[in-house]
Amino acid sequence: MTRAAVVAGLGCALPDRVVTNAELAALNGSSDEWIRTRTGIRQRRFAAPGTATSDLAVEAGRAALKSSGQGGADAVVVATTTPDRPCPATAPLVACRLGLSGAAAFDVGAVCTGFIYALAAAAGLIAAELADRVLVIGADTFSSILNPRDRATFAVFGDGAGAVLLRAGRGGEPGALEAFDLGSDGDGRDLITVRAGGSQQRLRDEPGDPDDQYFTMAGREVFKHAVQRMERSVRTTLERTGWQHTDLDRLVCHQANQRILDRLADLLGLAPGRTVSNISHVGNTAAASIPLALHQASADGDLRAGHRVLLTAFGGGLTWGSVTLTWPDITAA
């Protein structure tokens, strides 16, 4: 049997502050009904002042380590669009605060697909025998880059972190990451973006628009691309795994928008109840959304040992990706 990365622990972290649709509506002229019917979101969490992405990542990472019982990790991979600083990466600080100084540590920037990309990077480290245990964390504080006046984005995103501990194991055992599919299309870079803060903006001679510091998204185009790219990625990954769509017990998508989740399930012909969703309570938490959805489904008993699971995501870049596994017998922390 080939060496493989196996899910051995699961943890999460959510800020205490709950932000309802009514609270947002008072800021930008939207309404609870407007937000719910377009996104499926009723509330989300925002980090308190002084709370950084690394704080949530450390909390989720510590919980995943506890859940795994492994005691440590040789590498830490943090998927985030909202790092503590442009330089250095957030992962080394997270590793240090978790008592993992000396471990390999780096960030992955693939926006909402970041967690899938991070899983693939971690699986590669394990397959190459560069690590025996890798802590993979998806963490974002999108509230730090949202424009309160832009109701199309301000109503959608929330803050949070989720993590898994991967250990070296054998292909085919419960929890082993099986087939991956990853892709990108840089021609769509302007559909999901923060224009300011990088070299392109800083090296221009002319002054930039103050709103360029905020996250923007072309909603209609993103919806179309998200559904198309994830559907193709799911079908490719199922084929590589040797599964049919009817074999899937649970589809866990990046929690972008409830209408996207519903449309994707319809195109794939999935029976009701097989798509995991927690977006109504936490919103779109970007790189954290898949591990947070896994954590809630596991804690609620909706995701059980032996379930055949496919994870899929779409995000800025444009990027997309999917991976399959059979869910192991673990307890979320």
UniProtKB/TrEMBL annotation:
NCBIfam families: fabH, PRK09352.1. The active site is at residues 112, 254, 284. GO terms for cellular component: cytoplasm. Pathway: Lipid metabolism; fatty acid biosynthesis. Homodimer. The last Arg residue of the ACP-binding site is essential for the weak association between ACP/AcpP and FabH. Catalyzes the condensation reaction of fatty acid synthesis by the addition to an acyl acceptor of two carbons from malonyl-ACP. Catalyzes the first condensation reaction which initiates fatty acid synthesis and may therefore play a role in governing the total rate of fatty acid production. Possesses both acetoacetyl-ACP synthase and acetyl transacylase activities. Its substrate specificity determines the biosynthesis of branched-chain and/or straight-chain of fatty acids. It is an enzyme of class 2 (transferase). GO terms for molecular function: 3-oxoacyl-[acyl-carrier-protein] synthase activity; beta-ketoacyl-acyl-carrier-protein synthase III activity. It is found in: Cytoplasm. Residues 238-327 form the Beta-ketoacyl-[acyl-carrier-protein] synthase III C-terminal domain. Belongs to the thiolase-like superfamily. FabH family. Its EC number is 2.3.1.180. It holds the Pfam family ACP_syn_III_C. It comes from the Bacteria. Keywords: Acyltransferase, Cytoplasm, Fatty acid biosynthesis, Fatty acid metabolism, Lipid biosynthesis, Lipid metabolism, Multifunctional enzyme, Transferase. This is Beta-ketoacyl-[acyl-carrier-protein] synthase III. GO terms for biological process: fatty acid biosynthetic process; secondary metabolite biosynthetic process. InterPro entries: ACP_syn_III_C, ACP_syn_III_N, FabH, Thiolase-like. Residues 106-186 form the Beta-ketoacyl-[acyl-carrier-protein] synthase III N-terminal domain. It catalyses: malonyl-[ACP] + acetyl-CoA + H(+) = 3-oxobutanoyl-[ACP] + CO2 + CoA.
